Amino acid sequence: MKGHQGNVWQATFSPDDYQIATIGSDVTTRIWALNGQQIAQFEGTGAFNADWTQIAVALPPDRLRENGVVKLWPVYTLDRIDELLAAACQRLRPYLAHNPDMSDADRALCAGR
User: Which of 2, 20, 32, 86 is the most exposed place for a label (fewest CB within 10 A)?
Assistant: First the structure.
């Protein structure tokens, strides 16, 4: 699987063995189909509960103005990943727009969401 920019720290199969979640040194959590296709990506390091119904994603303090924030999201199904990303972008949009240290690529992360 290609996708992480650096080492993969952890890989975990979903309870139904049809998906794999990876956490990498690039501070992303990614979800993959067994054929290697990336299904979803979360900025920050994440962890799923035992039955994969929730994901907790923690952003490092230098990437979020609220120190030590951990967001807990219901997973339901990956068909609702757009809903999760839209909620995350709604919260991050002001930060991305007004932080002088953001690159144009970072500012575009939530474009169209």
Answer: 2
